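Example 3.2
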Amino acid sequence: MADDGSAEGATWPMPKFRFEVDLGDLKGVAFQEVSGMDVENQVIEYRKSNSPQFSTEKMPGIKKYGNVTMKRGVFVNDNTFWKWHAEITMNTVKRRTVLIKLLDESGTVTMQWKLDNAWPTKITSTDLKSDGNEVAVDTIEIAHEQLTITNGK
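Structure, written as tokens:
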């Protein structure tokens, strides 16, 4: 008989549909989608002058963090993205700590992604169509300097 996961100690992957985002002082903001939480190390290729092999060694270099993209429905009189973006002026930006929280069925944080020194680089407002019936969605792209992951419990 197949294991239904009801036995104590059974492990199932977390569903990804229940999450919330803290944008600095704004807590529990609901988004439709969050993507781009990635990190990569640049590769440094090096060949020693006395190496008998005719090839390079590969070593890890500087970490590079991708921009995080978030999509959210448009609400009446809610200009949260635009107000944050308006705070950017030449060489001055209000950076925030952004927390992306994956929640379990009881609403407890099980995993958390922390974006340090985050700021909006791009906002895309919804497209408008006279024959459309979709929800209006704004998109914000956020640059950051570090991504750290912590477990909730």
